[in-house]
Every structure is written in structure tokens, then in C-alpha cells.
Fold this sequence. Notes:
alpha+beta, CATH 2.40.50.100, 5-stranded antiparallel beta sheet
Amino acid sequence: MSSVTLDHVTKRFGTAKGVEDVHIQIRSGEFFTFLGPSGCGKTTTLRMIAGFYFPTEGRIRFGENDVTTLPPNMRNTGMVFQNYALFPHMTVFENIAFGLQVRKLSKSEIKERVERIQRLVHLEGYGERRIDQLSGGQQQRVALARALVIEPQILLLDEPLSNLDAKLREETRFEIKRLQVELGITTIYVTHDQAEAMAMSDRVMVMQGGQVQQIGTPSEIYHQPVNRFVASFIGETNLLEGTVTRIEGGEVDVRLSPDVVVTGLAKNASPACQPRVGEKLTLSVRPELVKEWEGEETENLLRGRILLSEFTGACVNYITQAGPIQLRSMLINLGRSVKQRGDEITLLLPKESIYLIG
Length: 358
């Protein structure tokens, strides 16, 4: 295991910047995810850690060792590629053993280590099979076994589940996390899938346009986004534009339309948000925090008509038009009758559920 430090790393391709001023420290044994849309710089950052690219600026360290200009074979990392990069002419055993053979280990040690890792990834008895005789999930486990069998300091995974169907993705996601916890290996994972990042990671780095937007635990990223991009990219949210009309006693009133003013709490704000009366503000409200009004509260109510009603069993999803405001809500199914398209509904935005972005 080893920590990984990127010290103000920038990567340029000609005049184009692939990654700009990435400064992070990944702790030893941590499961750390790079998350963002295509082209945001997450794979470029991973490839610099692997040694396939060298930074234009900045330094990379594994523990106390500067590896900035070391070639990949000198870094002791294991990597699983998006397309697995398996050798089709080799058996499962030969694919897994390849890295050990390059390191010139004895045949007996290679056999012992390959068989041990096959058990770990549940591929016992598959050693003599060809790669084209395996399912996608089995091929993914071969790629993972090949990366782990060399006993790397750091495991790097670049969109490793993107070629699997939904059910297999979920199963394999669990297996990767199980192995990471069992082995205690520092793992850096690249994905554009928010559910994967949230479910698997100790911490997440959200990227856009080659720049780091936010680093934090899944809970911090979800509940305390630093800007509009993070709020909208991580899960679903309602982004409501308005003007600050009052700040008093830790409360912030925001006018969303001529007829609607909602009150939030000043403490529920991103670090860069400094509400001022008369200035524009963006509110983020997660759909699952919106409630159906039950006749008690008198503040933060939006009355409207349902545009979409979606019953999923565990919950009911509504899209409601309240004047110029369109609001998504996710209401827990409590056995009540489900409202349909065209029905009227009054929704409540609890003060504590409103996050001020600015």
C-alpha cells in the first residue's frame, strides 16, 4: 500500500490543456474515485499516475518517492483498462501469469500466486479456458486478477464496468469493493457513473474541463456541492433561481417568482456563497427532500399541477409545474393513493433541505 500525491499537476497536449493544476493526496488504503463527464480529464490524470503520460508541470509521489518521470514498469501499479486488454491467444492462467513471467518468477511461485488470485476472484477451474470462452463478467475478473497478482502498491481502474450489463455491473462493483477492502490496497477508480462513485468510494474527486471541482466523501459531495455543476452532476436536484429579499436570524429569504418566496438557512451554503439582499442566488433541493404538504406548515409551499407521475414501488416520482417553477419530487410510498398527471398537489420545501449555492 502507498499514498499517492499529485502536487499541482498540469498536462498539456500541444496548446490544449488536458488537466490543469490538480493537487490531491490519496491516503494509503483508500478507495478514491475520479468522477466526471467524458473529456473532463479523469483518464488523463489516471494515466499520469500509471506513467503512460508525464506531467507538463507538477510532481507525482507514491509515499515519499518521486515517480514523476518513472516509466510504468518501474511504478509497481496494477491497471485494469476499460476494454480489459486481455491476450486472446492465451488461456486464463497465461493471462493472469503474464506479469509474473515478465518479472522472471519461478514456475512454482507463479503457479501458487495465480491459483491464489483465481480463488480470490472466484475463477477456480477456469485456468485452461480461452478468453473467448468467457462471459464479459468473467473477462473483467481475469483483468482484475492479472492486475492484482503482481501485488501492486496501487490499483488503477479505468471505467472497468462500462462494458457490462446493469445487473452484472452491480455484482462486479460489489466484488471490486470486497477485494479492495480485503486486500487493503490503495485504489484509484475512474468513472462517469455517479452511482458507482457514490457506492464504492471513500472519497470522490469531481472534475470538469480538466479542473477539479470538488473533493470529498460521497455524502459531502451529494449534500454540500460547491457549485451548480457538482449539484446537477451528482444525482438529481432541483436548481431554483431567485433573488435574496431578507437575511435575518440565520435565515435567508429568496424570491423565486412574484408569488413565491422560500426561506432557507444561511448555514446550509457552499463556501463560496455569501448571500446579500438584492443579489441573485441558486437553491439546490434534492427530490427526496421535497415533501407533500399535510396542512401544518405555512412557509415554503408550492402549489401546482402534476406533469408526470411515476410509481416505482418504493416511491412515487412527480414532476410538478407551480407557476414558472418546475419541481421534481420523490415521495416515499406509504400506501396512499398515487396522484396522476393533471392532479393538483401542494409541496413543501423544508428549510433544512435547501442548500444555497450562489
